[in-house]
Amino acid sequence: MSYVAVVLAAGHATRFGSDKLSATLDGEPLLFHAIRAARAAPVSRVIVVARPGLDTGSWAGEPSVEVLRIESNALSDSLKTGIAAAADADGAFIFLGDMPRVPHAEAARLAKTIGHAYAAIPRHDGRPGHPVLLASAAFADIANLTGDQGAGRLLRTRDDVVFDDCTDPAIHFDVDRPEDLGWLAGRDRADKN
To answer: Where is the MobA-like NTP transferase domain (predicted)?
Structure first.
């Protein structure tokens, strides 16, 4: 199977109050953590859908990182742009730019789990998280999304979605406000002790 990773990074982060994806965590922009997680997935390339002016870094080596710039901050537009660029793949992992602690091994687990399903989603304590692996069968449905909706509502209506129960709650950790960065850094220090 041929997979690509799509990192969604075009939002304006109104709750954060400033440029969230450029905020520093562990000495580098928040977005870089998401790109690194996407590159650790079993993919041939990584597509970053970003707003104009966002520093997406410079990534040497494989898999390659391609940046697509869009003006819209609507989640559906970001997702549609990334999926359209992934049209030749058998599936696409969807990573969110504000989720810096996604476990790197989770994408490989999803690739083993998906089989012939429409999508594979990690789950911790009964709650779905990220990344999500969409089979190419989902691409046409993604193209019909509108407004500020992602694939969540669509996936909740399907009975051919499989779940990978994982032990890492980081599949839920996103950054919405500046204090979330401090919480993540503090949590990481506590986990190391």
So the answer is: 5-160
